[in-house]
Design a protein that fits this description.
Layout (H helix, E strand, L loop, with lengths): L3 H22 L10 H34 L1 H37 L3 H28 L1 H7 L4 H14 L3 H16 L4 H24 L3 H27 L14 H33 L3 H17 L1 H20 L2 H34 L8 H14 L3 H16 L3 H23 L7 H33 L2
Helix pairs in contact: 1-8, 1-9, 2-3, 2-8, 2-12, 3-4, 3-6, 3-7, 3-10, 3-12, 4-7, 4-10, 5-6, 6-9, 7-9, 8-9, 10-16, 11-13, 11-14, 12-13, 12-15, 13-14, 13-15, 14-17, 15-16, 15-17, 16-17
């Protein structure tokens, strides 16, 4: 019992003290007034910290499972993690699309329509989650087979996934309320509950696996319990602290037109996320054809890559919320100033980042690769110095994704994604087939894809700018 009491006190603090603290210190933020640059940065900081926290947790979770349960358990969890990342990306796409509408309603101070939009989004995203949940549970064995899981790992993977799939609802709820709060200018509270979830997951991993010897099922249980805490915590917070989002029965009397609008935003953003994942998988397949050294170099370099430009991705999401709130409020002049500020900040950050990556690429590769593996480090350094020199392209692209999502043009995000990744895939396969170019064709295809998508984003903006502004001033 003495071993359990600390855990009881910890869990009690999560449900009682954390909600009280967040209610006292966190609030929604009206982005339609005040400093433009500071507003966007204040919203972006917690998003960046949240991603850093998630990366740290992934490392800790991998360490605990690998050291205590062995290589087979780690492989089973790793394979399952890839699947859950894909499922989570669907929820993120659905909720991200809805969040743009939330920001517009909030910016316009139209709280009645905000609640109705929430109700419509819950009906649509909740139904989608039910379908995903039912499909995942019913076809669990087929999914394991489709993932080409080795025979000796299938039973272990099944034991893990049968529990993990029970937490799909919590993954959905957390993302739904996190994107709702971020749409209202509050990115701090989701960060706090994410931090609590991460710490609790690590504590429960140690307790279930090391102390109670529950094995891989204990790792799964720790995951869904921590997910449940963050999801329920955010629901509780929104109900108590954000009355504008408190739903009643009458809010669910939504029109067919509203359902259609919400479905359009949610589905288009979800498709964008899916297209991105599919394109990346195709490039990965081509990389694999060049052998182990290129695969290892690419794996390590992509980790550095995604970590490096993660801040501009989160800043793009903050810029999207800023734009959507001001779009709803009809403040077109403020949006124009926000565009200049956002592109200025992104330009400065990406240029400095590219310089740092170019100078320290070999040293960064050695974080993941032993110094003795000179060939792998050489290949990874070439990738980082080619692709990393053009971070400005991906930085601008994240801003365009966010901007068009915020001004009722979510279909443009899909077009830009297809241009960027489609070009990358076609060029990568075409150039890599030329012996004199080889693997370098894959590396160069990435910034070329970014550039084409950015150019189209600029051209569309200047061509449609007047029409969008005239809409805003009606």
């Amino acid at each position: 019992m003495d071993l359990i009491k600390p855990e009881k006190r910890f869990i009690k603090s999560i449900f009682i003290y954390v909600p009280i603290t967040t209610m006292q210190t966190s609030r929604t933020q009206d982005l339609t007034s005040g400093s433009i640059t500071q507003s966007m940065l204040n919203l972006a900081y917690p998003l960046i910290l949240g991603n850093l926290l998630q990366q740290g947790y992934n490392i800790a979770d991998t360490f605990i499972i690998g050291r205590t349960l062995g290589a087979k358990a780690l492989a089973a969890v790793g394979s399952s993690y890839t699947l859950m990342v894909f499922i989570t990306s669907i929820f993120i796409g659905l909720c991200m699309g809805c969040s743009a509408l939330f920001s517009m309603r909030y910016g316009a101070k139209d709280y009645e329509n905000l609640r109705r939009t929430q109700a419509a989004s819950l009906l649509i995203t909740g139904s989608s989650t039910l379908i995903i949940f039912a499909f995942s549970c019913y076809y669990i064995q087929d999914i394991i087979t489709l993932m080409q899981t080795p025979q000796e790992l299938q039973d272990m993977t099944y034991d893990y996934l049968k529990i993990i799939f029970m937490g799909i609802w919590f993954v959905y709820l957390y993302n739904y309320y996190a994107y709702l709060l971020r749409a209202l200018g509050n990115s701090l509270t989701p960060l706090i509950y994410l931090a609590v979830s991460v710490v609790l997951n690590i504590v429960l991993d140690i307790w279930f696996i090391v102390k109670l010897h529950y094995g891989i099922e204990g790792a799964a249980a720790a995951t869904i319990i921590s997910q449940a805490v963050s999801a329920i915590g955010l629901c509780f917070y929104c109900w108590k602290k954000v009355p504008e989002t408190r739903l009643s029965r009458k809010d669910f009397k939504v029109s067919r037109q509203l359902l259609k609008q919400v479905f359009s935003y949610a589905s288009l953003t979800c498709i964008q996320q899916s297209v991105m994942n599919f394109g990346i998988l195709m490039v990965q397949g081509l990389v694999n054809s060049f052998g182990t050294a290129v695969m290892a170099a690419f794996t390590a370099a992509v980790k550095i890559d995604s970590f490096a430009y993660m801040p501009v991705q989160d800043f793009g999401n903050a810029f999207s919320t800023f734009t959507a709130q001001n779009y709803g409020a009809g403040k077109n002049a403020r949006i124009l100033k926000g565009i200049k500020s956002a592109f200025g900040i992104t330009t400065l950050f990406c240029l400095l980042l590219s310089l740092a990556i170019f100078l320290f690429a070999p040293q960064l590769m050695q974080i993941f690769i032993s110094p003795e593996e000179t060939e792998i480090i050489r290949i990874g350094t070439e990738y980082l110095r080619i692709e990393g020199s053009f971070y400005l392209g991906i930085g601008y692209l994240f801003l365009w994704y966010g901007f068009y999502r915020a001004v009722c043009k979510p279909e443009m995000s899909i077009i830009l994604t297809i241009l960027s990744l489609g070009t990358r895939v076609v060029l990568a396969y075409a150039l890599a087939a030329i012996p004199s170019i080889g693997v370098h064709g894959i590396w160069w295809s990435i910034p070329i894809g970014w550039a084409l998508a950015d150019i189209y984003g600029w051209m569309y903006y200047w061509r449609k700018k007047n029409a969008m502004l005239s809409f805003l001033t009606k």
